[in-house]
Amino acid sequence: MNLKNEVSQEKMIEEHLLEAVISRREFLLASIGLVASGAAVLSSCGKSIENATPAIEKPGEVRNFNQNMLYRRLGRTNLMVSEVSFGGAFHYGPGALKDTAEIQQVFDKSLELGINYFDTSPDYGTEGYFAYLSTKRERYFLATKVNTMSATGARAEVENSLKVMKTDYLDVIQTHYKPQQNEDWNGTLEALQELHKLKSEGKVRFVGFTHHSYDALRIALNEHSDLIDTILLLYSFHSDTDGAEEIIKLAHSKNIGTIAMKVFRSASETWEKRVETFQADATNWARLKALVDDSTSVAQACIKYVLKNPLLSTALLGMQSVKNVCENAVVPKMMDIVRKEKR
Prior knowledge:
Distance between the termini: 48 Å
Number of strands: 11
Mean pLDDT: 83
Helix content: 40-55%
Largest sheet: 8 strands, parallel, barrel
Strand order of the largest sheet: 4-5-6-7-8-9-10-11
């Protein structure tokens, strides 16, 4: 693969993707004092933009601030995380990233565009690639997971993750359950308590809980919120939206950060197949289609759908190319501009 030529081609595609947005919003950009940067506000995929002084009201902990990204507080962690965050399951499906140089370019582009929250897991098989970011550790928040619900298992996984990713600490560590697993609360609580011991040792900063079941998340939030700083949950236009929004509201009431996953469905399908599946569900497709216009792709509409919930902290997205990063990272600014237009 001629990586140089492919990246150049991707940049051309990225600029085309954003051209409609830029032309439609140009007057607004000038009106909000961005005339000097002009189109660069939304076409930062093609060029580097200097990070600005954080302009966040009552900011928490800020890393990698970029004026073209928006940030939200991750609950009581007080971390200001980018509205679009990076999901580490990029090895899956027909678009899987395998080339190390390309993966590093995807990481670099994510940082360049203001993304500051990176999430992975040992079972994704991608933790080793995150060692590349170890020299830039002050620019991002790093989250991973433990898959063994026991004290010894959780500790061993954390120690291994630290070693593999070449970091002294994790910003967020989460217990990780999959759809096929039943909840073993004794094991889960044992793992969570051990993670808090690791927190007291300075190896992790905050502890989270992930699950595909809203029932399990509800129990965790109602009965064990003292052990949980964040939750990772299914949330998208095609999921049980009412259930997800109930959980997000409950978590927000307890000042627990909320992270959306599966925003685009599973990466095991091609994007074309996923869109076909979206369209086959008439009710859900109507909700998404309302967010698609001349300047918004289907993927961007998926992101808009979850980010329009002000109680959500961040949308965790699987991104398998520089083009994906650019298309996704611009969505918060697009939404912000539209909000300003309506004022």
